[in-house]
Fold these 4 entries.
Entry 1:
Amino acid sequence: MARTRISSTDLTALIAERLQRFSECPDGFAIAVIPDHAHESGWSVVMNAGKRGRHPSCVRRIETITKQLRRIYVLAPDR
């Protein structure tokens, strides 16, 4: 099945929108989607190390969302 190409900005917004549904993640939990060719989808999510340590349940939630979205989206090349 072909995956949809999406920009890192749109993908970051999509993940942030999904995170708002869960109380594990505080408002303003900073994440970024970066190119990562180690994954077939071509992207990974990164976050502040301090926040990662203080909110492990949010980190697990982000990992779950990432797995779901990797099946749907591939990172579009920069223009």
Entry 2:
Amino acid sequence: MAVPATFLATMAVVTDQSTFASGGGYSWWQTVGGLIVVFGLLLLFLKLLGKWNRRTGGSEADLLTVWPLGPKREIQLLRLGQEVHYIYRHDGSMVVLRTEPVSDFEKTKAAAAAAG
């Protein structure tokens, strides 16, 4: 299969006029520098957000205890604000079993510690 001479001549002219290196293209150093700047800003913002989160309301939620029931099954006691939630977790699902105020939970915990 023969390639027409006009096609070869056209391709030679196009490749001579559109060289990427001679045009104002980006170099590898600019690309690496840009990536370093982006990742540096990302790390800076993550650190600032972490400090801000610790200062504002980090104590509003707490995992009190976990009772394992078997593979991928457990009951978690979560304190969210002024309530304690009993949550049954299994295979990626969550079911709220019961919710009670923190004061009732602490009374029940103190009574269980005194009895046992």
Entry 3:
Amino acid sequence: MGIELFEHAAEAGAQLLEVDSSAESGNAALLSLLLLTFDVGRILVRPEPSRHDLSIEVVAAGAPLPPGLSSAREEEPWWRLVGHPLARVWVPEGALSSAVCLQFRADEQSPRIVTLEARGASLGVRLENPPD
């Protein structure tokens, strides 16, 4: 799946700088691609419907980006997370490789957890702990 890429970013305290996505036509909640740009590099996430899991890969500096990406910086939940460090990463219990949880900010700093989940040919993004 490539979760180790997010684990390395978390170990480095990587700060989220930018988010780009490609939404399914007519549904901004379901994505076909998600590009997270950290101060240590870029990670591309996409669903792998043939394997029922996520594909997570590094996009090298200067490499061409997939077509159809647009900024998601102002979209929910990303506007809450840009500028914050990735603190922890895990696969939710029972998800095998179809989902990954990203915790931004340390436990004592009002963490925000986002789950990225393969949903067939789409990628779902869910904020797990919205503010009160």
Entry 4:
Amino acid sequence: MGKIWNEIQYDLEFLGGHTLQPQWFKVVKVFILVGVGVGYHLLFGWLATLLFFAMFVLLMLGVHFAYRIKTKKYTTTWLDFVVYEQDGERKMKRIGKFYYGAIAVNALIAVIVSQVLT
């Protein structure tokens, strides 16, 4: 259990400190998620909203772990995750079309699943 907790801490530290997205977007996406949740609830009810978010989180965990594994814990380049060295320090370029495309596809799948199951 300790090893799993260490890996979760590693990911949380990376997610909190990365520069793959602008700092303002890290804050704005919380409001986006809350807004989507409230809007989805008003349109389709709590059950559909819970199904949507459960499916979306599950699918995005898949994306997260794919990036984590393929980039060897965020240390090597893969798809739109680009790692480079500058002044002896490892840096990463901003993520792009593949990651945001996965978000869009996963959101669409989550909508379909939540609508079909309710």
